[in-house]
Design a protein that fits this description.
The mean pLDDT is about 90. The chain has one domain. It has 7 helices and no strands.
Length: about 160
Amino acid sequence: MTFGTLTSLFYFLFVVVRVSPWYNPQYFIPIAGMLIGNSMTGITLGVNRLVDGMTTQKALVEAALMLGAHPKVAAKSIINAAFDAAILPTINSMVGMGIVFLPGMMTGQILSGTAPTTAIEYQIAIMLGILGSVALTVIIFVQLGYKTFFNKEAQLVFED
């Protein structure tokens, strides 16, 4: 989780906001909090879907393994479904942003007197940062997580 979140956080602080010093708490704390919170939700959804898929589709995975498929190929549809499930809430938030609901960061900036266009630009930037953070962390967790269901001989090993 650290890699994905820190990558997005530093990109946001150095490239988008260009804050100096980078650890300025005015920017660092709220941005890091949003990225970490959304990444944790994505990881939870992704790992939950991965475990559920590996459990419910055990026969399908074993059949693919018996036909000579590599564990990653045997679990590919489950891995893809886990990623999709993890990223969907973030994409839904991006779709409704500004039309259906006003996100907290944007609302807070507008209420504090910031120009609405500036608030919108920052909100779009943070949503893209959140999407990047969630995507990176979920990819890492799901790609590492599926391997825990297989031993060194590429056999499916987990108890029902």
